[in-house]
UniProtKB/TrEMBL annotation:
The chain holds residues 179 to 413 of 415 of the full protein. The lineage of its organism: Bacteria, Bacillati, Actinomycetota, Actinomycetes, Micrococcales. Signal peptide: none annotated. Its cofactor is Mg(2+); FMN. Binds 1 FMN per subunit. Catalyzes two sequential steps in the biosynthesis of coenzyme A. In the first step cysteine is conjugated to 4'-phosphopantothenate to form 4-phosphopantothenoylcysteine. In the second step the latter compound is decarboxylated to form 4'-phosphopantotheine. This is Coenzyme A biosynthesis bifunctional protein CoaBC. Its EC number is 4.1.1.36, 6.3.2.5. Residues 10-227 form the DNA/pantothenate metabolism flavoprotein C-terminal domain. It comes from the Bacteria. Residues 15-235 are annotated as: Phosphopantothenate--cysteine ligase. One of its GO terms (molecular function) is phosphopantothenate--cysteine ligase activity. It catalyses: (R)-4'-phosphopantothenate + L-cysteine + CTP = N-[(R)-4-phosphopantothenoyl]-L-cysteine + CMP + diphosphate + H(+); N-[(R)-4-phosphopantothenoyl]-L-cysteine + H(+) = (R)-4'-phosphopantetheine + CO2.
Amino acid sequence: STQLAGLKPLSGRTVTISAGGTREALDPVRFLGNRSSGKQGVALATAALDAGAQVRFLAAHMDVQPPAGVELIQVESALELRDAALKAAIGSDVVIMAAAVADFRPAEVSGTKIKKVNGSDAPVVHLVQNPDILHELVERRDAEASTQLIVGFAAETGDEDGDVLQHATAKLKRKGCDLLVVNQVGVGRVFGQDQNSVIILSGRGAAPQSAAGSKSDVAAAVIDRVSTELSHVHP
Ligand code: CTP
Ligand code: CA
């Protein structure tokens, strides 16, 4: 290899990372949200920066501060994140979708605050499905025949239809991404703490890889794997 001593594994690479949870407006003061803290995305950005990458950080709502040293793009809704992601992906070697994207948004957003009217029924909120950003990124990448590496995240539990690995494998296939980082949620797993247990699934048929530890440990393992995959695609 022509790798120079001291050259970091992602030197010269641009990595786009989405993080946090989207907020879907109901009216000017209310939204539908989720509990994503943004911590995993921040850990990924930090690991990518440490590996020498330029990082485009797409931040939906987060409980934590974005890391210093990234190109910060703040978004609110899934539709905003979609626009930002498709734009940031251009010229990126890697796109990592760590954001918790709302599957649905209110069909209508009231331009004025929804008022309660005494004596009348509670309003009914109709939802419509948001676009699948990860899938769109993959479709565009494939249409352009680019070698961009695309990484998804998923939290799965086993159920009567299959175990974690079966659900995750089906999702990887559906999404068409190169890597899917699967968080094992549920029985025997500590939830809501800073410890994680993940399986990294490869769309290219490589064996599943396990990683466990803090969100930083998991992020380091993911960025490591990304660096390895990239060095295979274009050394
Ligand atoms: N994702 C996305 N756009 C969406 C929903 C999800 O880009 N509208 C991305 C997430 O950022 C994540 C991956 O897709 O990287 C998997 O998200 P997940 O919610 O597990 O997948 P879904 O297809 O929404 O499946 P589910 O019905 O299990 O929620
Ligand atoms: Ca979802």
